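Sequence, please.
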């Protein structure tokens, strides 16, 4: 892999991480019903973070992969805080809102940071232990199960336990469970095949075999 192509691909993956973090931290504040169960719109976007993580680790290895992931985390959290403050319930509140501290949004950012760190550490650890397995799907499947479990319940407990939002506080466990179940369903149906397609294209482009 040429150094320029390597940097370009790393920036692309980092940008993917940032986009998912920012979008998910905003959308997790918006409630939605999924087959009669209480959830949030964040359940539809955050599963992509594990797709991005596994591709990063598969291509760059665990050491450089962690660096790329963690470098993306801080701008992602900053952007998500700004978006969540200036847009509330889908309405533009103005830049002046940034002049005051929003505890509700700050808790989401702190929870996202904690869950992201723990979830990604577990995801990278499990994935790296299994990525040499002859069956390509073992590593991304196992890492998604463990990483999503740690990430989901760490996030919801820190962000919404006794929070000021009644919907999120009163339905914390149901929302977290539905969120985790939806992530597992999406991962099995969509992300594993998508992971294989993207991985083959990226490795073919840079001339690396796995």
């Amino acid at each position: 892999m040429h150094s320029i192509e390597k940097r370009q691909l790393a920036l692309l993956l980092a940008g993917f991480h940032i986009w998912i973090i920012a979008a998910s931290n905003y959308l997790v504040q918006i409630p939605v019903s999924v087959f009669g169960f209480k959830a949030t719109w964040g359940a539809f976007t955050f599963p992509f973070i594990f797709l991005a993580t596994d591709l990063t680790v598969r291509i760059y290895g665990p050491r450089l992969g962690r660096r790329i992931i963690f470098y993306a985390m801080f701008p992602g959290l900053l952007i998500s805080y700004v978006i969540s403050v200036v847009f509330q319930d889908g309405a533009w509140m103005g830049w002046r809102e940034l002049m005051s501290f929003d505890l509700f949004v700050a808790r989401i950012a702190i929870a996202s940071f904690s869950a992201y760190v723990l979830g990604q550490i577990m995801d990278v650890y499990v994935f790296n232990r299994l990525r040499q397995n002859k069956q390509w799907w073992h590593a991304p499947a196992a890492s998604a199960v463990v990483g999503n479990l740690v990430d989901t319940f760490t996030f919801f407990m820190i962000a919404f336990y006794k929070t000021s939002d009644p919907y999120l506080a009163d339905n914390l466990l149901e929302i977290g469970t539905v969120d985790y179940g939806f992530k597992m369903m999406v991962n099995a149906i969509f992300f594993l095949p998508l992971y294989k397609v993207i991985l083959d294209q990226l490795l073919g482009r840079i001339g690396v075999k796995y």
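The longest strand covers residues 31-34.
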